[in-house]
Write a structure and sequence with these properties.
The complex is a heterodimer of chains A (990) and B (173). Chain A is an alpha+beta fold and 990 residues long. Helix content of chain A is 52%, strand content 12%. Chain A has 36 helices and 18 strands. Chain A has a six-stranded mixed β-sheet with strand order 10-14-15-13-12-11. Chain A has a five-stranded mixed β-sheet with strand order 2-4-5-7-6. In chain A, helix 9 packs antiparallel against helix 10 and helix 12 runs antiparallel to helix 15. The longest helix of chain A has 27 residues. Chain B contains three helices and eleven strands. In chain B, strand 10 and strand 11 form a beta hairpin. The relative contact order of chain B is 0.23. The chains are: A alpha+beta (990), B mainly beta (173). The interface between A and B is large, with 52 and 45 residues.
Amino acid sequence: MGDASIEQTTEKLSELLVLAEPSDLKALADVHTAFEELKAGADAEGRQEVAAACVAAAALIERIILEDVPDAGAAFEVVNRAVTAIQAIIRDARPSGEVEFPAELGLAQGSDGSGGAAAAAEAPAGIVDAGIFADFLARQPGVLDEMESLILALEKTDDDDTFAHLRRLIHTLKGEAGMLNLVDVARLCHVTEDLLGEAQPGTVTDTLLEVNDWLGRTFAALSGKGEPPEPVDAVIGALATAGVSPGPQQAAPEAGPEPVEPKAEVPAPGEAEAAAAGPTAASAEGARQPKMLEGDADLLAEFVTEAREHLDNADLCLLTLETTPTDEEALNAVFRAFHTIKGVAGFLALDEVQSLAHEAESLLDRARKGELSLVGANVDVTFTSIDMLKRMVQHVADSLASGEPMPVEEGLPGLIEQLQAAVTGLTPIAAPATPLPADATPETTVGEILVDAGVVPREAVEAAIALQRELAEPDKLGEILLEQRVVSPAQLEEALRVQRELEEPVLLGGILVEIGVLSAEELEAALLKQREPVEAPKVGELLVKSGDAAPQDVAHALRAQKQQRQATVEVKEAVKVDADRLDRMIDLIGELVIAESMVSQSAELLATAPPLAVRQLNQLDKITRELQEMGTSLRMVPIRATFQKMARLVRDLARKSGKKVEFAMAGEDTELDKSVVDKIGDPLVHMVRNSVDHGIESAPSERTRAGKPETGRVELRAFHKGGSIYIEIEDDGRGLDRQAILAKAVERGIVRDPDSLTDREVWNLIFEPGFSTAKKVTDVSGRGVGMDVVKRNIEALRGQVEIHSEPGRGSSFSIRLPLTLAIIDGMVVRVGTERYVIPTLSVVRSIRPETNHLFSVVKRGEMLSLQGALLPLFRLHRLFNIDEAEQDPARALVVVVEDENRQVGLLVDELLGQQQIVIKSLGETLSGLQGISGGAIMSDGRVGLILDVGGIVRVANADGHEGEGQGEVQQAADGEEAAAEPRAEAGESG
Amino acid sequence: MADNAPADVVESGRLKADPGKYLTFVLGNEAYGLAILKVQEIIGLMNVTSVPRTPDFVRGVINLRGKVIPVVDLRVKFNMESQEDTERTCIIVLQIATTGHDVTMGIIVDEVSEVLDISADQIEPAPSLGGNVDTDFILGMGKLGDRVVMLLDVDKVLNSGEVASVSLVAKES
């Protein structure tokens, strides 16, 4: 074939393309065939670049046919441009080097690695959650500004608070940088902290400002603005001359992941095998060099987001797997993550991502098939793969933003080797990774349930599952073709042999068309058929069919499974909405509810309305209530994501410190206001670090001696209690050392008389700024800054921290947060004309007191004897100056409420009922009220006040000191029922 | 954009009220005016939930379309005789400027009259009524024919010293 024939084919191709529409399957198939033809021609002439472009374009066409591209129009445009490029080469005889193929084709062309080194030098390596990283960067300019002003202030004054504040900032920055694997930043902060610990802050202003500037430049460079600054060692050197011996810090942060200077000319061992085993690693030839992005920017951006989600999820599932290796759901989820990333990365020509994902997928596939178990080194290597993929995805994101080439991941070849070793190390069956359909086998649980219930023998279930898996496998193209009798078995065999022999993988369909046994239309029909989801029979059906289980047993099992499924993890989709718009919508829903209740509860209207209208009003009422419920839940997010980060943190810290620590969490579905969830992360990080580093004993023998299991345990819990949200972190380590804390406190002059302090007071000492009993300062903790941060952040959320600790048994930190906007169950009580809401969780019981159970104590307060226990009794109407309340306790009701393990009785007139309420702030003008924690919109649209039990006790005690139950503020107890209670009379009470 | 908020000139003896549109309302026998830009809306009297341990001029809180806002009884605030609510009693919802941002708050008045355009030559300085009568929150007197409208500085009426004491009192207790 000469150029003429290629030229003809090219012309034909461009004609076809002009006529084709992305929706016209026939035309697309023709274009596909034309590309194949052209490829053959180009191959014959040794025009590699044309042939490669044809393959890529044909693949893209195929994806358009399969509706596998998000935007068929755009993809079609790419094909068009590819053809233009091919034309330029063939018809205009332009040298191929000058012609640019569309980047979206993902051709591995022109990987000249210029300028990669600079970009790589400071790119963050390691476990970087991009969202966190972006947040981190966004916050830094503010932090640095603050730091600078503090440094300058310190030059003038020697203020302890300012100094502590500066240390806190640097400490937090160090912690965050450490988490984000900004090794240099963390190191610098560490040295700076040392400096602050030793030198007078006023004398080292210049050095500190230099540190500040360096950090500023570094963060600017990381955000893609400006040049990366000089190496950190220069600054650290300057610090050293300023009076610090750069001692232990050198060693500590080295534990971070490998440096990221790209090392060119690193051969990629094992990639050849990878290419043979499955999807191609096209760039295997030649050196691994920093690579420019080639794919479509939008698709790449989408890939980044998607990949991150998958990887985060995989992280969590892997943690689950570590504790329960048999969890198939989790295994499948991890597998799916790698599989999806592999697929998309391949399309976007992210070869390295693809090959790594492929290897990891192979490993997991083996695990899924039960050919190897995911424990020990296998888990580690999977974790490492996830980490590296996260970094690579980050590189993609960086590269997208900056236009710079992506840095090379140096550890990649080694990791791939490890993965391959893990795959082949066990029962080497020549099974290439054939992905199962992505949504495989949640049904197994039905089998489990049936087995557990003893209804069906395990063997039967296993057989059914095996059968099902077989049925669920999407039919191979060849099988479909055979079934349709389009090709004969012999022809198929031949095509498969050709496919195996070809070096570059060519799609089976292409071969069949090429050898002429299949027309393009037939291929297309078969491909479409293959795309149809395969309806695999359910395990239950199979069991019933085989007679192993009775239909009603399966039905029971299914019901049980459904309940379980509601409790299991779901990957939730989310849409980002401006919080203001959300608030506005919630307000509007409130308006709607009121307007609706005005209509549907209007006696006038109901009296005259026809029955049909009444029914419709009822319907409207129902919908409105539902809408209201929905609306109120919108701002609430589960704390799960924050807890997940902690899980990872514990694991990493444990590895770093060589301790065995097991992490558990409970109540991760507890919903909190979004803003609270955002702010609680920082304190939790500090507390978790504290627990792992200080709490858990370093030597297992120390634990066994104390009669505890070798593996330490850190548990994170979240729950609602008494109208507050509690977040608790508990460890079973050595507990707080009362003596050491006291000794330190005396030494620092905080405490004079150590013996007079209660345990609680002692524990609270650790929240003092700069308080630390640690004998050595590690890069994890020990400077005593962390707990100070914890306390401040939690106080900023209007919360409290409480510590319980038992020497040798462990400690627990309990964070109590108010509900800023949360839905709680409330008990509605009436006092006189007023209604109040008591959080149901605070309510222990309610009783009608008998007169002989009431005692007055020194005319100050009243006590109620309840089953032998004496409780303080407070009359709400006295505390709140409410008229017309029931004065006689015997005719009123006592609600026993609990606050901080203390029970008190509240005297109210009656209980009105229980309902779900949404807590609303009373606004800042009324925010300081004691005894009232907020307002709630009641079902009738009016505001109900929510009682704060702790506050009531404080109010009552304060009043007690001033005399019998008289508040210093007299208040106009207006009639709520304005019509029924003449206002003039009520208003006079003030 | 012209700033019609009358609160920015605060020099004693001078006119503090800017000419412009004022919402006028009645309390007892007296007519008062508010700069219209302060007014968010006017709503009929609704059920007010009284809040314990607040000053008596705070009638309580209401649910304004899902938002809880405090409501001040202006009669009580001005030490006028209380009077039973009538059909004309209503709540004027205001945006009160505090340090930094605005706070939504309601005031209960006997009756809302009309919006008046008051020109500069109709405004006279607030009278001084002797040392023990605080006229600081009066921006000026609007003279409209034979009527006199007291132009209020609502920020002052409901601000710092007064309403903040709501929470202050609560904190002390």
